[in-house]
Specification:
Largest sheet: 7 strands, mixed
Radius of gyration: 15 Å
Shape: globular
Strand content: 35-45%
Structural class: alpha+beta
Helix content: 10-25%
Number of strands: 7
C-alpha cells in the first residue's frame, strides 16, 4: 500500500533534493510551475522516492525538470524549508539536500513541474524573483566547489 503524504500541512517533513548545475560561469535554474513559490526561480529538484538514493534522485529530478544531464558530486548542503500560514501552522516543511553538478549534456528546457529552465550568471540573480536564500546559496556553494 502506497501512502500519499500531502505537501501542504504534512504530518511529517518531506525529503527532497536540489541540484546546483553549473557550466563555465553559469548556473541552471527553473521557474517553479507549482506551489510553493510558483513563478519563482529556483534550483531544479524535487522529492526523493522511497528506496531511491539521494544522488539518484538528484540525477533524475535534474533530467526531468530541465532535460540536462550532469555529473552529480557529493551533497554540499542540507537545510529546512518551512513555511507557516497566518495562524502559525506549518503549511510546508521540506528537508532539502543540495548537490553540486557539472553540466555534461542536454539542451535546457522546462519539463515536469518547471514552467521554464534557463542558465544565469550569478551576478544576474539579484534581478529575478527567486525562492528564499537561492542567490546567496548559489554564490556561497560555487565559491566552495
Amino acid at each position: 500500500m502506497t501512502m500519499i503524504i500531502p505537501r501542504q500541512y504534512p504530518p511529517v517533513p518531506l525529503l527532497g533534493v536540489s541540484v546546483l548545475c553549473h557550466q563555465k560561469n553559469e548556473v541552471l535554474l527553473i521557474k517553479r510551475g507549482k506551489p510553493p513559490f510558483a513563478g519563482h526561480w529556483s534550483l531544479p529538484g524535487g522529492m526523493v522516492e522511497v528506496g531511491e538514493p539521494l544522488a539518484d534522485a538528484a540525477t533524475r529530478e535534474l533530467l526531468e525538470e530541465t532535460g540536462v544531464s550532469a555529473e552529480i558530486t557529493r551533497p554540499v548542503e542540507t537545510f529546512d524549508s518551512i513555511q507557516r500560514d497566518d495562524d502559525g501552522r506549518v503549511r510546508n516543511h521540506f528537508v532539502l539536500t543540495v548537490f553540486c553538478a557539472r553540466y555534461m549534456s542536454g539542451e535546457a528546457r522546462a519539463g515536469d513541474d518547471a514552467a521554464e529552465a534557463r542558465w544565469f550568471l550569478p551576478q544576474d540573480l539579484a534581478d529575478i524573483v527567486t525562492t528564499p536564500g537561492t542567490p546567496d546559496r548559489i554564490v556561497r556553494l560555487l565559491a566552495g566547489r
